[in-house]
Specification:
By secondary structure, this protein is an alpha/beta fold. 38% of the residues lie in helices and 15% in strands.
Length: 666
Amino acid sequence: MEYDSDLLTLKELCNTLSISLATGRNWLKLKKLVPTKTIGNKAYFSTSYVNDIQKELVSGRNYALKSRRNKKFISGNGIYKSYISASSENNQSVRAVLDLLSKSEIELTMEQINLLVAECALQLLCQRTQIATEVSGNLLMKYLSQELDIGVYRPLIEDFIVSHESAYTFVTENESVFSISYYYKEQEDILGLLYISLKNIGSRKASGSYYTPTETVCRLISNLNLSAPDSAQKSILDPCCGTGNFLLQLPDSLDFAHIYGNDIDSTSVKITRVNMALKYHIKDIQTLYDNITESNFLTAPSPCTYDYIIGNPPWGSVFSDAEKEYLREHFQCALGKNIESYDVFTERAISLLSEHGTLAFVLPKAILNVQNHTPIRQIILTKASITRLDYLGEIFNKVQCPSIILQLVHTGKPLSCLGMTVTTQDRSFFIHREREITADNFSFLMNDREYAIMNKLLHLPGAASLKNQADFALGIVTGNNKKYISHTKTASNEIILKGSDINRYQIKEVKNYITFTPEKFQQVAPAEFYRAPEKLLYRFICKEPVFVYDNKQTLSLNSCNIVIPHIKGLDMKYILAILNSRIVRFMFCKQFDSVKILRSHLEQIPIPIAACDIQEKMIAIVNVLLMESDEKKYLTQYNELDKIIAGLFEMTEEEYEVICHECHSS
């Protein structure tokens, strides 16, 4: 059917706003989107309507994206927290700029952002080199009026200015914004802070750019021991240098002639050159342009290899079809359906390391254990040895993604972890004994003693498993919980459980009800799984297993999934006890280290074969735990049951104490 060319389909609207089609459909249902016209059952939107939404999202007036974890489009000006020290007076300077812009309701173009950065760069250069005695602000106006001569550094400032005429007009009309003072501090990326605070947040995320807190950068650099005398002439590359913060934290004793950086963001490269000029007192400006380049690390040819490759590669970059085709031709990590930017960056970096060269990257922890990243783990297994692994937790401003520092040495040989240092948020240890590591899962959260215990557990003689001996089913995905779930009981609805509704062995008081109409839901398992005479339910999003027994044919949402064991000779309540034990919790936390309880994890758990009398004794305790409301009595029964299970796993008293300590005895 023909329609007005000014109208956009829902898919076209979603592409314009950088949201998924599923999100668009959801917004349409929730009336966050109002169609300009409906033809048949299809919604169409005017170009002006879509442009208005886009402007509202950019300005922050529309909060529709706030609840979305992957806010690719949401934008606006805001200071990037945790990038520099909270005590730095430059934080106040950047806030002052943002406040003035907000009051004036100025929506900056990239050309104008560059001018604000140029003002800051002029102030820092004048302070550092004492070119001018008065550096309190408005230096860009003096520069444009030729009242300020910065000598050899002129090309660095000119790079930020597209047109002197338009620059002069903008500075004149916004004099107060250019009057803010900035303060030079060694190894502080104030230029980067200003830039990333002004820059559109959406464009940061769409390009996969997550600017690393300086505390983390310093930690990575300090672990490399670059202050040693023999490090002065070592070649160092940051292949995604951003505004140069990693290079800025390098020791001053290094020779800049051997320091390199590149990035695809033009303004970031310009800032890095200024930062390097400030740090190393560089007068040979050509060296800055030779060593710090605007180029694509994944596609540009490299003239040499490097002793050190450091940095924080892009996460979740969006590649064009042409880029995907190139990457699939050149990278092993790009052969799957989805191409993750930090995987291919890591592969490329390893290939450009000199013999015994070191890579140190800040990466998502997912690279260690998520299935999609198996190819890069395989490459590391065959070509490198990990020397250090730091588990950092969540370090990025407003980004829920646990991170690591991965440090490895290019050996060209199979991986060894002998001598490897592992740090977590609460402890640090060395690995003194070789261990078996596979590409399926890089698990390094165990010290040597814990690894020996884990090895014993995983190789328990005669143990069974849930693999091919259980039915698994997802809870219900309604597609619209607000529509289908009620907090009021009626004659036609029934209880439905969420993951948060269950604890080990017990179901909380539930106030969620649903009318079971599977044909209306987005995703639903066959009814026989929900209506099974008995089944086990478990939290899907959880760092450790939480299982409960159900014989009331209770429905559950997809945060509360189902497993129905069929292991011959083993009672379901006995298996429940094993899955809720501290031993299995220990295995999950140390071996899988995931916030999701996956089927593939559960199928790897060894389940001891117990005699009928032992099972009966354990089931009697389980029946008590299913009903016990007194916390102290519950814990007494749980501990008694857990010690029986420890015996079934052939744990010594000392081994069981290690497990209890790691599970905090709860």
